[in-house]
Amino acid sequence: MAGALDLLRHAHANPGVTRAEAAAALGLSSGSATEIMGRLRAARLLGEVAAPSTGRGRPTTVLVAHPQGPLVAVAELTHATWRVTTAAIGGELAPAAVHRHSGGPPRAVLARIRAALDALCAQHGDRVVAVGVSVPGTVRGTTVVQAATLEWRDVDLAVLAPGRPLTVGNDASLAGVAEALRGAARGHPVALHLTVEVGVGGVLLVGGVPALGATGAGGEFGHVPFGDPDLHCPCGARGCWDVTVDGRAMARSLGRPAPADPRAFAGEVLAAARSGDRAARAAVAQAASALGRGVGALLNALDPSVVTLGGLGPDLLASEHFPASVLQAAMVWRRTALPPIVPAELGARGPSIGAAESALAAVLPTLATRR
Ligand SMILES: [Zn+2]
What we know:
α6 packs across α8 (about 280-300). This protein has eleven helices and 15 strands. By secondary structure, it is α/β, with parallel strands linked by helices. The strands form four sheets. It has a five-stranded mixed sheet, with helices on both faces. The protein has a five-stranded mixed sheet with strand order 13-12-11-14-15. The protein has three domains: about 5-65, Winged helix-like DNA-binding domain superfamily/Winged helix DNA-binding domain (Arc Repressor Mutant, subunit A); about 70-175 and about 350-370, 2-Layer Sandwich (Nucleotidyltransferase, domain 5); about 185-345, 2-Layer Sandwich (Nucleotidyltransferase, domain 5), CATH 3.30.420. It has helices at about 5-15, 20-25, 30-40, 105-125, 170-180, 245-255, 260-275, 280-300, 315, 320-330, 350-370, and strands spanning about 45-50, 60-65, 70-75, 80-90, 100, 130-135, 140, 145, 150-155, 165-170, 190-195, 200-205, 210, 305-310, 340-345. This is Xylose repressor. InterPro entries: ATPase_NBD, ROK, WH-like_DNA-bd_sf, WH_DNA-bd_sf.
């Protein structure tokens, strides 16, 4: 029979669910649901508020996070910014200010993030039960093994959360986790998520669970050689897809030097293309074609039931060159039965939502047994 952990997970995954709906979904009698809810309330995990009356049946309640319930602290690092926030059961992120950093050695950036996390823990005390971190790089365990845009190698982030459980994930992979649980890939058995920012990263999700390989370092789709074999990638390999789909590719196409901030440069080129600049339109078309070819190849390899695209992805998806390139790369039998390829729904919040989900997933079983 379903127990406290099942009801806790169900309420977390389905914000706004009523007690009656949760009981029906889990096969619980009304009496069992009431008894389990009593335990979860006493453990300060879930609370209940009156559900809006439907005029039918007996009144029920909506399951919500307990007002004094557990929180996870979330830190999100990008190539140029960082922010920290908290999330409760139900997954809602608290508002967060975005701070800029200027790169350089990890120590200074991590010290600022650590101080902000310490301040959150001081504010909320024992309610902060875990920390989740999103980084723009390849992750094994809690170590960033390579973050090309930050020029970091082998940086252990355990320093960010002494004494608390810590989960660290790649930003694009975490955005995929968020899309599978709360966004455009929700309910899909096999989903492929790709984020195009500086390069392209992502993750395959099977039943909502990320397939990240033996050590957690998988999902580096940008370093599959779908690109020009003559081009060197900062990762150390040649021919990477990464350098053909972003602002760096657009700069080459326009005969411009490599941009210091490829993401911002891509934004400028997309804006120029929208206003009719022919050279910018050609640069966008090339990037969209390169993205489409790779997506077509990944459809052949992975057979997802949906593909979600974040970052620059939705802009490139809107180009007429994108679907044509997907079709060229897809095996002929597949061309009449392509899965939906859609913009990600959670946008820039995806990595933080995914980091919160990963941190919470790791501690929910322990929480469900507390009294
Ligand atoms: Zn590479």
